[in-house]
Amino acid sequence: MTEKKNHGDNTRLVHGGHSPRAFHGFVNPPVVHASTVLFPDARTMRDRDQKYTYGTRGTPTTDALADAINELEGSAGTICVPSGLAAVTIPLLGFLSAGDHALIIDTVYNPTRRFADTVLKRLGVDVEYYGPERGADIADLLRDNTRVVFLEAPGSNTFEMQDVPAITAVTRPRGIVTMMDNTWATPLYFRPLEHGVDLSIHAATKYPAGHSDVLFGTVSANAQTFEQLRETVLALGICVGPDDAYQVHRGLKTMGLRLERHQETTLKLARWLEQMGANGHPLIGEVLHPALESHAGHAIWARDFTGSSGIFSFVLKGGEREAHAFLDALKLFGLGYSWGGYESLAVHVNLGDRTVSARDYGGAVIRLQVGLENEEDLRADIEAGLEAARATQG
Q1: Helices (H), the chain
Q2: Per residue of the chain (394 residues), what is the pLDDT tens digit?
Q3: Which of 197, 278, 352, 358 is the most buried (most CB within 10 A)?
Q4: Angle at CA 129, nearest 5°, toward 163 and 189?
């Protein structure tokens, strides 16, 4: 039989994480609701000499999902946690202590920044933000007490790229742990560990689950960092429900096909908006999508990534009045903060918390999550929004 690593993405997604022969031939893994696990005798109980010992330490359901993720990430181990934000905070807690210095990308997911500016600082961690243009010159920011560099690419909401291999080439020899929020690309389009990153973080709420009905996170680690990561999550007592793990595992099976559709439609809409702007549309400014040749980080994206997903932003010239008119006119794009599901969403993003990367975009930044609807229908919806925004200007 051909090795799994030589199979295509969709084959690995369909067959990863569970062997039907291991459970009476059933195609999907069992959903095990468990707290107490019994031992056959006192010696086994004393030594905990069996695979499962208590519900918080894993079940066949969570193991099936973790195994599937490990195959995708090329990781030594994966933990499952109750949300994408938990997937961010647990590694930071696990590898930072009072007196440590942490470097975090300035274009990071806003709740990550909130955690760093509140909990980490209260615990005595010195948090510093760096711009996404930093590559090997991140060495200029490193200190003797730098313990963690946190990456996210593309950047949240504005989609700046980072030169990940250049950064990890500097941090790894110094023993600095690198963590990357890779939710946008998923391990199908970028594999952080192959580029020197130690821990790959995902809000599995998004593309792995895919149906806007589960909160979930995963963290996949290399052999050097997994045990410390696992000990942290066990010490905190954080675990996931089996039904949520099952739904994410089920969502993985179709993630490849869904991502292909998300990518195709999103690129069509992004190029269409960019062309309208180039043709002089009075309301369309910069289109922020790294797969566009005009994007400042396109060369890095083309070098390191194998695809793009279904979320990007564009600049709507004007202010809040135009932004609200645009959003309120939309019928197919719902107004919601999440993304990665089957339905399209839109939001006017707030970038006011940024420091070293702050700039004037010349209008309201509108983020679009492009779902699985027909492209022509979504285009018509955007056109209606633009007309409503234009009407506010008389």
Answers
A1: 9-15, 42-47, 60-73, 84-95, 110-115, 121-122, 164-171, 186-189, 226-236, 242-278, 298-304, 320-329, 375-391
A2: 334 567 888 888 888 887 887 877 888 889 999 999 999 999 999 999 999 999 999 999 999 999 999 999 999 999 999 999 999 999 999 999 999 999 999 999 999 999 999 999 999 999 999 999 999 999 999 999 999 999 999 999 999 999 999 999 999 999 999 999 999 999 999 999 999 999 999 999 999 999 999 999 999 999 999 999 999 999 999 999 999 999 999 999 999 999 999 999 999 999 999 999 999 999 999 999 999 999 999 999 999 999 999 999 999 999 999 999 999 999 999 999 999 999 999 999 999 999 999 999 999 999 999 999 999 999 999 999 999 999 998 7
A3: 197
A4: 35
| Whether 307 contacts 189, CB under 8 Å | yes
Q: Computed over its alpha carbons, how large is the radius of gyration of the chain? A: 22
